[in-house]
Amino acid sequence: MPGRSEWAPLPELPAERDAAASVSLPDGRTLLIGGWDDGQADGEECLTSVLVLAADGSEWSELPPMAGRRASAAAALLPDGRVLVAGGRSAAGAESAVKTVELWDPATQAWSALPDMAEERNQASACVLPSGRVAVVGGVSTDNMDCKNGEMFDLVRRVWEPLPAEMIHARNDLDVVAVAGGLLAVGAPLHNSCNELYDEESGRWFSLPHPMTEPRVSTNLVLMPAAALLSVAADSDA
Q: What is the pTM of this model?
């Protein structure tokens, strides 16, 4: 709970949902984007629907749906409050990975199409780099191969460009988070304890010197203010 070092239950979703993307909005709400209806059989299509959790955690409600069906997509909150969703897959199987991109505008509550990525990516991850460009990294291609490369979207020029260098390890089902100077990439099935740092100025990837204490896949990263961590530590020592 906010301000307290403890967990509290939230309202259940209207229906079971798997492999959705999520984004925290500046006003405290949380978007849950696409995914699978857990009652669907293999081979059926993914969801276009989007849910939003109220800032006080009181209830879920529906937002206008995306144009395209997608699960295991990459999503990022832009500096102006809009949300970019890229890639994922439209149905079961690696061959259904997509390269389409959509943008949600909180002012109009509407989705609009952005230029496609250069490559189809399922189970990739995204974040906004210090330059303001959106990086989409890793994932699984249509030939079921894990990706080492990534792409950047320039919001002003509205074009995708490749990251200058590839990751040291191919990764899918990873997560990335923006840090000072670049981004941190964590997790993957084959290299789940060896994490990497991308430096935007040099365009290079660096392997972190120490792995995590426990291997992790399907990882999610969240930046926390140092003050919040100190508060939790103080509460645990009390």
A: 0.88
pLDDT of residue 71: 95
What DSSP element (H or E) covers 101?
Answer: strand 101-105
Q: Is residue 161 part of a domain?
A: yes
* Tens digits of residue pLDDT in 124-146: 999 999 999 999 999 999 999 99
Task: Label the pairing between strands 30-33 and 50-53.
Answer: antiparallel
Q: Is the distance from CB of 106 to CB of 158 less than 8 angstroms?
A: no
If one counts every other C-beta atom within 10 angstroms of the C-beta of residue 196, the result is 22
Domain count, the chain: 1
- Cα 147 from Cα 85, distance rounded (Å): 18
Residue 202 inside a domain? The answer is yes
Question: What's 202's domain CATH number?
Answer: 2.120.10.80
| 9 assigned to some structural domain | no
Domain presence at residue 4? no
